[in-house]
């Protein structure tokens, strides 16, 4: 038996289910499947930009997660072994827009999975496409669609099967993520990022004032070592860097290898890559999920304005804009990681000078804050 849909979505992570919501919002039919037997438990957090919040509002989703979202009122960025820093003030009248919000991925999953019929445990036998149709053969059924969105993450099997050319490079770093509770120090809705030689170390505010989300990038394979040492020793290492006394690790310590993944041409006929399948970036700026949201926001805007029947002739222009935006973020994050990981005294002095210049300029601060908020992306 063959069923036909406007869109087939491969991958039921956050990007895939958000794609299903936008199609549902537009009254388009979709079939979303995932090879996993069920949704994974994701203890990470996401920094949701203001532009992303607006898109969630468009889809009627933000009000269901807003009470769990923690606004970032200030951001401090420091360089190791330097007195230079950047302070992005949320209450600066010259910066007339809100900062980002920190939302636990468990909350995002709870909200986004509601109302979406996901077909779990589905492993296809084959995928093929013509210029205007996609066919996915499963052991017990055949699904066809007008378009296919691939949202399988950085290591997409479908992208490889269909011959998408990927630029993939390891940073030789891993990212350790967990939530912590301090002995009494409150975060006051302030996010802190410290650039170390091994990689950035960030603390984001969570819902309770003494709870923080730690995103710690280290040289490979030190992340696995940090994940295995006992709690007391781990918290001691965190205190040495942050200066904050922590009393408990609240979630499992999860370690991920950091790999750049970028597709220069994320479309083959009716098949399109979105999210990390198209552009998996370094977590240094906390923009990975936001880039996926911008992909889908632009897709929603094009479909809403011109309709599905006219989408094919507009798809290349849509993807060109998305590629340009993603490429700019890849270049920015890559530059940050490479420039701040070099221990050269002359480069450290140059970085300090740049930080001091930006800190003294409201115009430059505004530029960087607008990019972080998603404006122009």
TrEMBL record:
<keyword id="KW-0830">Ubiquinone</keyword>
<keyword id="KW-0503">Monooxygenase</keyword>
<feature type="domain" description="FAD-binding">
    <location>
        <begin position="8"/>
        <end position="332"/>
    </location>
</feature>
<dbReference type="GO" id="GO:0006744">
    <property type="term" value="P:ubiquinone biosynthetic process"/>
</dbReference>
<dbReference type="GO" id="GO:0071949">
    <property type="term" value="F:FAD binding"/>
</dbReference>
<comment type="similarity">
    <text>Belongs to the UbiH/COQ6 family.</text>
</comment>
<keyword id="KW-0274">FAD</keyword>
<dbReference type="InterPro" id="IPR051205">
    <property type="entry name" value="UbiH/COQ6_monooxygenase"/>
</dbReference>
<protein>
    <submittedName>
        <fullName>Ubiquinone biosynthesis protein UbiH</fullName>
    </submittedName>
</protein>
<dbReference type="Pfam" id="PF01494">
    <property type="entry name" value="FAD_binding_3"/>
</dbReference>
<dbReference type="InterPro" id="IPR036188">
    <property type="entry name" value="FAD/NAD-bd_sf"/>
</dbReference>
<dbReference type="InterPro" id="IPR010971">
    <property type="entry name" value="UbiH/COQ6"/>
</dbReference>
<dbReference type="GO" id="GO:0004497">
    <property type="term" value="F:monooxygenase activity"/>
</dbReference>
<comment type="pathway">
    <text>Cofactor biosynthesis; ubiquinone biosynthesis.</text>
</comment>
<dbReference type="GO" id="GO:0016705">
    <property type="term" value="F:oxidoreductase activity, acting on paired donors, with incorporation or reduction of molecular oxygen"/>
</dbReference>
<keyword id="KW-0560">Oxidoreductase</keyword>
<dbReference type="InterPro" id="IPR002938">
    <property type="entry name" value="FAD-bd"/>
</dbReference>
<keyword id="KW-0285">Flavoprotein</keyword>
